[in-house]
Amino acid sequence: MNKSGKTTAASKKNAKPIRVGVIGVGRGQSFALGATDLVGMKLVALCDTWKDKLDEAGKKYGVSTYTDYDKFLEHDMDAVVLANYFHQHAPFAIKALDAGLHVMSECAACHTMAEGVALARAVERSKRIYMFAENYPYAAYNQEMRRLYLEGRVGKFVYGEGEYIHPDTAEVKMARSCGYNHWRNWSPWIYYCTHAIAPVMFITDTMPVSVSTFVVPYDFDDPTIAMTARRYDTGAALMLKMDNGAIVKALQGCFRGHGNFVRIHGNHGLMENCRTGNRSHLRVWREPWEKNPGEPIEQIYSPDFPAHHDLAMKAGHGGGDFFTNFHFAEAIRSGRQPYLDVYRGLAMSMCGIQGWRSALAGSAPMEVPDFRKESVRKKYENDGFSPDPTRQGHVPCSVLGEIKPSKKALAFSRAVWRKQGYKGE
Ligand SMILES: NC(=O)c1ccc[n+]([C@@H]2O[C@H](COP(=O)([O-])OP(=O)(O)OC[C@H]3O[C@@H](n4cnc5c(N)ncnc54)[C@H](O)[C@@H]3O)[C@@H](O)[C@H]2O)c1
User: Would you say the CB of residue 31 lies under 6 angstroms from ligand 1?
Assistant: First the structure.
């Protein structure tokens, strides 16, 4: 993507389609659906261990199916999209890169610092494209804010906020998290921080350098939490310092008040998406003594995408799902790493890991290291800090310690998992 946010579709004309395989037939189907000639891609294979769902998806798309990832990687293709479990992306990415395939990975890029080191090294070693599939930066209002920021409309970035607030009923939560140790039942909210952080990094071209976390604990009085198998807290705010000195608050959790918000304060103005009415509308504010003559103090409008507006409007997540496929394909065709490259993906993901360290250390600041430098990576190459209950030496998933769901909550959760066709515990 160039500075104006524009890319040409010309490069895909007359080119052979990029043959892509997708692992994970839940979220992965957004990528499967988007792998069309509009972006110069063709879906050729799917992989999932959940056989019934895989068979259904295989029939729907008419492509080869695999339950074994190693066999899937042997399929004749150019690229893979990883939409398998949230905390298992890095090892799957490394295997694919080492097999000579380009990789686009869902969030998070890595679950431990050591995995982050290994992933950065694998991308460099493979010389293949790696794209971090963060779709939230590509919402029209975020792309517009990037355009305005690069034009200098609000001056230098000094403070920002990103929010990803996602409440659900206990039943909806459990339908999405089949099995006691499904990642959505233990992974602290902080780890799911990339939707809140990515837009701010994208708009302002900044990187996080340190993180302090403030956790809203597990709420035993909230039935949408206490009637589930989830063992982590209600939500958390990360306070980040960015590499230009700006401060960012990134909030994520299952608080009431569903929505995504981004706020950018420059030293000459403010930009944010609206909190009431149409939340895709953008609000730009300039103080009366700083605005240009004739320009309003406050502007509220519905921005178009800078490019491919009609195509993007048909895709999910406010158009973001179109742009991830599009930029991945453009990167493969051009041979240049995309804007959301491995280092940006790792930086966002490490805010979650180091953020959880901070939460367990009473909100003490932790560094977010720059993994573009091997000298920096070295220190973390054996760092397996993790709340994953299946890993040896894991740390707690809640600031309150180990949470034990009630018998009633477990019975309810199991009933929901059965309804989903899940046969495990
Ligand atoms: N960017 C977004 O807007 C967005 C939205 C939803 C989900 N996601 C991400 O997508 C990923 C998948 O989430 P999901 O909602 O589909 O739920 P999920 O994590 O339950 O689904 C993962 C799928 O991968 C399959 N899988 C797991 N391990 C496998 C293996 N070893 N081999 C083959 N298949 C395997 C599972 O059977 C399951 O069908 C997560 O990382 C999530 O964070 C992103």
Answer: no
